[in-house]
């Protein structure tokens, strides 16, 4: 395999990993900010497991697929959600208060 093919294969693999990061089913997090006028929500992703878990992960901002999705949640709520990313925009496709 030539250098050029190796670089293209690596770039393709990185692209697939980046696009699948937000295609995951049901992530969990805590709502840190809601902007109902712009239909955006910021969620701090929760660490899974207990080994070495110290607090939450990074806070990410998402656009709501439907503005009505944001009505039942408030800042501080723990939520489960699914999201996709297209064209650099992260979009919440499912949002539900955690029990």
Features:
1 helix; globular; 99 residues; alpha+beta; 5-stranded mixed β-barrel
**Uncertain regions: pLDDT < 50 for 5+ in a row?**
17-21
Our measurement of the CA-to-CA distance between the termini, rounded to an integer number of angstroms, reads: 51 Å
Number of strands: 5
The major sheet is characterized as:
5 strands, mixed, barrel
* Cα-based radius of gyration, to the nearest Å: 16 Å
Q: What is the 3D shape?
A: globular
Proportion of strand residues: 35-45%
Please give the order of strands in the largest beta sheet.
1-2-3-5-4
Instruction: Please report the number of helical segments.
Output: 1
Helix-strand pattern: HEEEEE
Determine the fraction of residues in helical runs and give it as a percent range. 10-25%
Structural class: alpha+beta
Mean pLDDT: 81
What features would you describe in this structure?
There is one protein chain. By secondary structure, the chain is of the alpha+beta class. Helices cover 18% and strands 43% of the residues. It has 1 helix and 5 strands; from the N terminus they run H-E-E-E-E-E. It has one helix at 3-20, and strands at residues 27-35, 40-46, 56-64, 78-86, 89-97.
In short:
The protein is α+β, with helices and mostly antiparallel strands and 99 residues long.
Set down the secondary structure blueprint:
Layout: H1 3-20, E1 27-35, E2 40-46, E3 56-64, E4 78-86, E5 89-97
Parallel strand pairs: 3-5
Antiparallel strand pairs: 1-2, 1-4, 2-3, 4-5
């Amino acid at each position: 395999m030539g250098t050029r093919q190796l670089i293209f294969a690596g770039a393709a693999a990185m692209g697939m990993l980046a696009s699948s990061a937000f295609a995951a089913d049901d992530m969990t997090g805590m709502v840190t900010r809601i902007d109902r006028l712009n239909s955006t929500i910021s969620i701090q992703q929760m660490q899974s497991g207990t080994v070495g878990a110290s607090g939450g992960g990074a806070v990410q901002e998402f656009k709501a697929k439907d503005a009505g999705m944001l009505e039942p949640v408030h800042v501080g709520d723990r939520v489960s959600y699914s999201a996709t990313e297209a064209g650099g925009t992260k979009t919440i496709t499912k949002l539900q208060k955690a029990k």
